[in-house]
Amino acid sequence: MIVVLRLGHRPSRDKRVTTHVALTARAFGAQEVWVSTKDAALEKTVESIVTRFGGEFAIKTGMKWREAIRSWKGKVVHLTMYGERLDDVLPSIAKEDLLIVVGAEKVPREVYELADVNVSVGNQPHSEIAALAVLMDRIADDDTLYMNLDGRLTVLPNPRGKTVIDNTKEKGQGRARPR
Ligand code: SAM
Predict the structure, then answer these.
(1) In whole angstroms, what is the distance from residue 45 CA to residue 21 CA?
(2) Are 2 and 30 in contact (CB under 8 A)?
(3) d(CA 41, CA 47)
(4) Over the stretch 91-132, which tens digit does the pLDDT of each residue have?
């Protein structure tokens, strides 16, 4: 079980980045994303992707982050450029249930204390999306990136164009035109 907790989301400023945090979490094998600020529009955007592309992924916004961290039964992994090296902590977290915490603006000091591990993906400042993707890729099973989520739409590998199957259509009619 992997859940991503997004702290400090500001609906007006962070809509796009938080959406991408959620979609990255989903695509790399998390089951849920929790966002500390209530944002119904964000929920709708992510749920619409899940409806079309499948899977059981859930988004919850307006989560009380302190309670979420304190009540988590597995390991709490806070992604921060100030943390320990990813390679050093991977063996202790790879097989655990993870609550992965990413920030937006300045992350409260308390999060560093509450986390089981503070983990860096390199020690340069970059992005919560990049940090999340790298961590999740390191802990993913071999088939995670191409898992079949039984969605309404299925994307097939295509060396040039786009091939999308609409599984709600009769066989032979669902193959979208290459674009
Ligand atoms: N300035 C903020 C602070 O000091 O807490 C961080 C802002 S940064 C744009 C947003 C988030 O990206 C961070 O909270 C962290 O989760 C993630 N992040 C950025 N660089 C990272 C790195 N090198 N390793 C791990 N996480 C990183």
Answers:
(1) 12
(2) yes
(3) 10
(4) 999 989 999 999 998 999 999 999 999 999 999 999 999 999
Residue 171: is its pLDDT beyond 70?
no
What ranges make up the beta strands (E) of 86-130? 98-102, 117-120
Ligand 1 site, residue 118, Cβ cutoff 6 A? no
Matching residue, tokens 């009619």: 173
Taking CA atoms only, the protein residue closest to ligand 1 atom 14 is 103
Going along the chain from its start, the domains and CATH numbers come out as: 2-147 (3.40.1280.10), 151-179 (no CATH)
Which one-letter amino acid corresponds to residue 20?
A: H
Whole-angstrom Cα distance, residue 26 to residue 12? 23
